[in-house]
Amino acid sequence: MVLIRHRMQQHLKLDPLPELEIDECALCPCFPRPMSGTTIQGVGDFFDLEKLCVLGRGNHGSVYKVRHGQTLAIYALKIIQQGSNDAYVSHETEILNCLDSPFVVKCHGIFEPRAGEKAILMEYMDAGTLDTIFRDNGPFSETSLARIAYQVLNGLKYLHEHDIVHLDIKPSNLLVSKDMKVKIADFGVSKIVQGIGTRADTNHHNMCEGTHAYMSPERLDSHTFGSGYVYAGDVWSLGVTLLELYVGHFPFFPADKRPSNWMELVLVVCFGEFPSFPKEASEEFRSFIKCCLEKEPSKRWTVSQLLSHPYACLGERLGK
């Protein structure tokens, strides 16, 4: 263990990333007048959008609930603040512009309200995120998670078929409607990859972007687990997300314990024991999670394989 710790300290440069902070929906001041000529097809001028409240704040800006003045349609508007990483902005806008799936949040257009600032107009999901629902109501049932798993898998299938790896699947990046439609959001650290099959070529340094608690072993320690299985990382993140929402806490530690530092997190995720299940967990749920959380990426089930799993099939039936 000492040797492992020493080697990983040499290779890992992990800085904590702040989580999304959810605020109360409160009245907000008006937007600044946009640059001349800035419009979105079907919506009109940026200045026609009225801020209603703040939905959340993250690393690169804020998300607002807005109303279009002429049609009264409700949208979510993500304002990416000046000074944000240019790569973050370009990745998210480039990817959102080419996506069209019922399992991925829809982008209605992109503004430049003022020099150096970007605004992304997206569909509004009226129940918030899986994280907000979890915080308000506690752990999810197996049946609810089956419906969620099926929808997220379909979203990932669409992304992977279009050579996109999300890299930051977690409860706060999965948006929900009141009728439990679930859509993948936030593509700021996502990548368009090149390659064939489950292996693809991409810059490993960029693969370390995202939320470390949901990263797969191969993303945390590519020297031990390999660096080519980029799509498999999304499957791991989904498995951690579902198990966390089921047991009510980050599953690799007891409910009353948090990692004291990033090294402890990495050692537990990469080399620790498999998380334990509550005794009431069904065999189908246990099997599905184990297929997602296989530490060896070449043995981890793919999205297509998971869609044929009995637990995902249950989710499909429940959603009809």
From TrEMBL:
It holds the Pfam family Pkinase. Residues 49-312 form the Protein kinase domain. It catalyses: L-threonyl-[protein] + ATP = O-phospho-L-threonyl-[protein] + ADP + H(+); L-seryl-[protein] + ATP = O-phospho-L-seryl-[protein] + ADP + H(+); L-tyrosyl-[protein] + ATP = O-phospho-L-tyrosyl-[protein] + ADP + H(+). GO terms for molecular function: ATP binding; MAP kinase kinase activity; protein serine/threonine kinase activity. It comes from Populus tomentosa. The keyword Kinase applies. This is Protein kinase domain-containing protein. One of its GO terms (biological process) is response to other organism. Keywords: ATP-binding, Kinase, Nucleotide-binding, Serine/threonine-protein kinase, Transferase. ATP binds at K78. Belongs to the protein kinase superfamily.
